[in-house]
Design brief:
Elements lengths: L3 H8 L12 E6 L6 E10 L5 E11 L2 H14 L4 H5 L3 H7 L8 H21 L6 H32 L4
Antiparallel strand pairs: 1-2, 2-3
Length: 167
Amino acid sequence: MYTEKVIEHFRHPHNQGKLPDYTAVGKVGNIVCGDVMWLYIKVEQDTSGREVIADISWETFGCTAAIATSSMVSDIAKGKTIEEAIAITNKDVADELGGLPPVKLHCSALAADALNEAIYNYLVAAGRDIPPALARRHAHIAAEMNTLEQRYAAFLETQEAAHGEGG
């Protein structure tokens, strides 16, 4: 059963859509459930010269929990410094929603991973050092995304073979 907060974020998601002037994007997916998330961040310097997530948005193909966690992670991360945003965990996302059913906890992990990937891609593009924990998380996410893409390609091949080329 979902909490009222999960239902509210599903019915009225925050920061949904593709940010037109994003600085970086993180894309993640789950090979078991098929959920896919894109999280866009716009990084700017605040008045103290710190890099902050000035704006954030997302696009998600997934279930109620996937939509709600995408919405919540965007609320949590907006206005945070890069360092503060890296520290956001799947537990933080789930806790802010008042909890998730155990079978849906992977959605909060996807949301946190999407944020991590966007930050990772931002730091790489800026030629910055990658914190070791973020580099390890990226390697894990990249392996999962590679598996997801391979399985999708194999599925398409079986569909083409079953229906004939171009059919």
